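Justification of resources, computational component.

The compute hours requested in this renewal are based largely on the per-chain cost of generating structure records like the one below. Each record pairs the submitted sequence with a full structure-token output. That output is archived, and it is also reused by downstream analysis tasks.
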Amino acid sequence: MAENKLEATVRSDFGKGYARRARAAGRIPAVIYGGKDKKTTHVSLPAHETFLIVKDNANALVELDIDGTEQLALVKDIQRHPVRWDILHLDLLAVTRDEKVNVEVPLEVEGEPAPGLTHVQETFELPVIAPAIAIPEYLVVNIEGLEADVTVRAEDIKLPEGVELDIEPDAEILTVREPEEVDIPEPEAGEESEGEAEGESEGEAEGESEE
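The structure output for this chain reads:
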């Protein structure tokens, strides 16, 4: 957890004006909610350090130093700028080390199905219940050598110790299939495609200009 430690400063200012000033100063507005006392605390976090922690982990667990008081918190929502993708605001859930939490963990497909086949993925995240201090960053869906019409279900995915499904076991994750053939109509004999006609015209024009 040392690498996920952040210094949080309690704030009493709110609104778009404050948020702009905070981001200009290298801070990110955030709110911490939940915990045993169900208290909501508004804080600001260092922007660069926060970005490094959450950029590859949607369920990052951070150890906050809130004006000298330590608090574990789970990232629950990240608001980003639609163009620059900068972090604009964070929602954090206060947790304890012995607590289990409901999270959605990304799925990564590993391996290749039998030759000539492909797969269609129905979901890209798996809802699970996991220890707050041991949330997997991702779960593996292995399709190595699978034949056509084989469906991988939630219950087929190997879960780490202490992690359990928070979805019906027979929920479909992906299906192995034969690739769909796409019929591309051929132009009738004697007809030129629009692209070919344009290409010839451009070629003739270029030839004239070179002379």
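Residues 3-95 form a domain with the Ribosomal Protein L25; Chain P fold (CATH 2.40.240.10). Confidence is low (pLDDT under 50) at residues 199-211.
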